[in-house]
Amino acid sequence: MSDASPVSDDPENPALHSPAEPAGTARRIPDGRPEDPAPSPDVPELLDEILTTARASRQPGGPPREAQRASGPPREAQRPGDSPPKTRDADGPPLKARDADGPARMRREDGEPYGQPGKPLARSPFMVGLTAGMGLLTAWALSQALVTVRSVIVLIVVAMFLAFGLNPAVETLQRRRVPRRGAISVVFGGVILFFVLFGLAIVPPVSQEAASFVSAVPGYVQELLANPTLKQLDTDYQILTRIGDYITSGGLAQAVAGGLVGAGAVVFNAFFSGVTLLVLTLYFLGSLPSIKDYLFALVPNSRRARTRALGDEIINGIGGYVAGNLLISVIAGVVTWVFLAVLDVDYALALALVVAVTDLVPLVGATIGAVLVTVVALLQSGTLGIACGIFFLIYQQIENYLVYPRVMKHSVDVTPAVTVIAALFGGTLLGIVGALLAIPVAAALALIIREVVIPRQARL
């Protein structure tokens, strides 16, 4: 019997708890004979395995590329004494295995193909300055665009303003069972008829007076040449000689041609703006209910009912103001026409229409119309001029203290001081259009302050 005894399975046997043998030493089997060490991988065999894997990846039925990337190419076995493979950078997260189809390209485990991004540059002074500069350039471009399209914006605002003003008349016809399209046709036809009558009343007198002036120019020239004072001035300063040289040199013809071209451009622009204004007003008047519904739909549902009530109140106020202002102007025009016709003043109808149109402008419109009519009557007769001046002085007092308050008491609720200030600001910003829009805008702001701002401040 051999001296070596088999290893017992007793847990107290110290052979089971002996320390691990060092690498490279032969392990002993129970019968005492040393075990053969594990065979080391052969280099040719590894190369054959790599080539076989590469050929299989090129074949149609080979493993997919994703599986090859997941498994990776075979690596050489680590030999004793070799340093472990590099799995992380000196200051970065662990690296993934090399791609099978990339030239030694390492990917980080965080999913970034080129590593972790650096700190954002939001607080960099360069980025702050660049952002501020871009903001300034954008603001400047927007301001220039607004200045360029200023005339278009004014036309749109005035058209919407007129649509609000004509809407009460359309709704009145609708309440009498007239379809909205028919009501719009009737109201808009009345507006067009007014402009036609205004043109027929203004154009003939103006053209007649212009023709009379042209025919009377030669007589005026002869009278000037026969004037002894002018003869003395011509002897001293050669006035007539210089005027003749200026006419023959072509300077007068050039100035007259430039003036005619400028006047024609002004007339054409005014005609085009008037037609555009009428078309926009017609479109806005026809689609006003849908425009209101669309704008109110942009408001949150919790505030939509109150916003709609305030909006309807503002729109009704603007419509009442426009309708009341038109009524006051019609009254002024009719009364003026009756007075001028009784006194037999020339061009009574044209002058009355001038008074009606200028009376639409707040504060100064009635005064401008009165001065124009008084001057025309004064040229016809001194007595007529004085009578017209007294008439307009009395009528303006009646209009300011009796007619205007009774007509506007249900339309706009604005104090006289606010009316004057709003008209001054509007006239300064947009001229006559701004003066027309200033009072209803002031009334809308007063309504918002009274119904929204003041109650909110009271709850604080």
UniProtKB/TrEMBL annotation:
Q: Quick one: where is this thing mainly located?
A: membrane
Pfam families referenced in this protein's UniProt entry, alphabetically: AI-2E_transport
Q: Where in the cell is it found?
A: Cell membrane
Q: Would the keyword Membrane be found if you checked this record's keyword annotation? A: yes
InterPro entries registered for this protein in UniProt: AI-2E-like
Q: Which region is the signal sequence?
A: none
A GO cellular component entry from the record = plasma membrane
Keyword hit for Transmembrane helix: yes
Q: Name one GO biological process term.
A: transmembrane transport
Point to the regions of Basic and acidic residues compositional bias. Answer: 85-111
TM ranges are: 126-146, 152-170, 182-203, 260-285, 314-341, 347-364, 371-398, 418-449
What family does the Swiss-Prot or TrEMBL record give for this protein? Belongs to the autoinducer-2 exporter (AI-2E) (TC 2.A.86) family.
Q: What is this protein called?
A: Putative PurR-regulated permease PerM
